[in-house]
Amino acid sequence: MTVAAETSQAVAIAAKVGDVVAAHGGRNPGTPLRLDLFENHPVNRSAAERRAATLTARRSIKKEWQAAWLVNAIRCIDLTTLAGDDTEGRVRRLCAKARQPLAPHIVEGLGLAGERLTVGAVCVYPTMVAHAVRALAGSGIPVASVATGFPAGLMPLHLRLEEIRWAVAQGAAEIDIVITREHVLTANWAALYDEIAAMREACGGAHLKTILATGELKTLRNVYAASMVAMEAGADFIKTSTGKEGVNAILPVGLVMVRAIRDYRDATGAIVGFKPAGGIRTAKDALNWLLLMKEELGREWMRPALFRLGASSMLGDIERQLEHFVTGRYADATRHALA
Questions:
Q1: Are 176 and 123 within 8 A, CB to CB?
Q2: Residue of 97, 275, 285, 317 marked catalytic
Q3: Which residues of 72-109 are buried (b: 16+ CB within 10 A; e: fewer)?
Q4: What pLDDT is attached to residue 24?
Q5: What is the domain count for the chain?
Q6: Out of 176, 236, 285, 317, which one is annotated catalytic?
Q7: Is 239 a catalytic residue?
């Protein structure tokens, strides 16, 4: 199968996924807090680590298949800048890259001329949302914004809710919130549920991505429980990390989270997306996360409606690998700068 044929098939599956997600208005309706879905749920760390290791070791994606998967990965990227020195100019340049993630000669070499190829979203701080909205006007690319006192989340709840409302008013279509880790570490599930449910309400029509900051939750059992509570409270996506923790997105943690998504779907019929973020820098990283989604949830979860990759530099490496596929030569990484 050619890259173009595999990509066309991906677009068809994405449309099917869109129909499924639209069954609930594109949202996870949530449920009342159900402790029975996660309390006393065992998580075997060594088994999770072994499964994650064998997942990537026994599967190899090569040649045109690899190129097609990398094109699909581009569609799933939340292209991100969350730096203290962000400016309107940097955001505009990032948005230009979001609109045209591959150089024209690579697109033509892949047989994708005429295909719409953009990233999944652009993710910025609330004060940068208006700049991104203007830069992406007419592109169909949503603007996502972190909120709720990102990255620590240690602000009074009413201020965090106001930050969400402000970002949505600026034009953000997706909000990436952070939870209060203390609620997880003290097993105060009702407080965590109420907090996330309030944030979901504050989002209005914007989709809610709940960042668990898994590197600070201590145990995989806590990761599973926090994932389930977030989904019960109405999270449309659950996300691994802020990118600011000591340990960010790693496959064993991702495995636990996607199995929570599967269990939640089986228990409620609702569909929730997944977003790993933090430390995802290479094309190989993208392939590994796509493999996890395919093996654990199926091809339907390999599309931007249900899967995003939070990354700021990975797109450059993907473009470099695809240029090698097209030309047989590796370009210097500086040729594919993002912003």
A1: yes
A2: 275
A3: bbbbbbbbbbbeeebeeebbbbbbebbbebbbeebbeb
A4: 42
A5: 1
A6: 176
A7: yes
Distance, first Cα to last Cα, the chain: 34
Residue of 78, 97, 209, 239 with catalytic role: 239
Question: 3-state DSSP helix/strand/coil percent for the chain, to nearest 5?
Answer: 55, 10, 35
Task: For residue range 80-114, list pLDDT tens digits in order.
Answer: 999 999 999 999 999 999 999 999 999 999 999 99
Model confidence pTM above 0.90: yes
- The domain in which residue 170 lies consists of 3-336
Q: How far apart are CA 260 and CA 95, in angstroms?
A: 33
pLDDT of residue 33: 98
Structural tokens at position 248: 């960010």
Q: Which pLDDT score, from 0 to 100, does residue 128 have?
A: 98
> What is each CA distance from 272 to 49, 262, 330, in whole angstroms?
23, 9, 38
Smallest CA-to-CA distance from 307 within 317, 319, 318, 296 is with 296
CB 249 within 8 A of CB 280: yes
Q: What is the dihedral of CA 159, 165, 166, 172, to 10 degrees?
A: 130
**Per-residue pLDDT reduced to its tens digit, 35-75:** 999 999 999 999 999 999 998 887 778 899 999 999 999 99
Asked if residue 314 lies in contact with residue 79, where contact means CB atoms within 8 angstroms, the answer is no
Instruction: State the CATH number of the domain containing residue 98.
Output: 3.20.20.70
Give the CA distances from residue 223 to residues 3, 128, 188, 275, in Å, rounded to whole numbers and listed in that order.
Answer: 37, 31, 14, 14
Rounded CA separation 199/164 (Å): 7
- Write out pLDDT tens, residues 226-284: 999 999 999 999 999 999 999 999 999 999 999 999 999 999 999 999 999 999 999 99
Q: Is 244 a catalytic residue?
A: no
Alpha helices in the chain (DSSP H): 3-22, 45-57, 63-75, 88-99, 104-109, 129-135, 157-170, 181-185, 189-203, 220-232, 251-268, 283-296, 314-327
User: C-alpha distances in angstroms, 127 versus 145, 154, 222, 339?
Assistant: 9, 19, 32, 18
